[in-house]
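Repro:
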Amino acid sequence: VQLQASGGGLVQAGGSLRLSCAASGSIVSIDAMRWYRQAPGKQREFVASFTSSGSTYYAESVKGRFTISRDHSKNTVYLQMNSLKPEDTSVYYCYYPPFGSWGQGTLVTVSS
């Protein structure tokens, strides 16, 4: 399984970005895909995922600002990030638990 994350960049506080994670290889279903992030000097933390019922689940710190979505036809999962804050600055990773596969990460920098 290969995961290609993209969409990161530099944005001012209050701005928006949309990250993408394109999956290829032995993907059964992208519904299992999750987003994580790791800020400098901190541990990697969970950001968003889909639940088994098809709903979505978010870390408290991003709830109401971030939205995870997917396009099965493209094997791609997205993370729409709105109202960005400087504390959202991190490398964002997509993760596929069935294979323990991580994407390469995409850097999001939010300036104040």
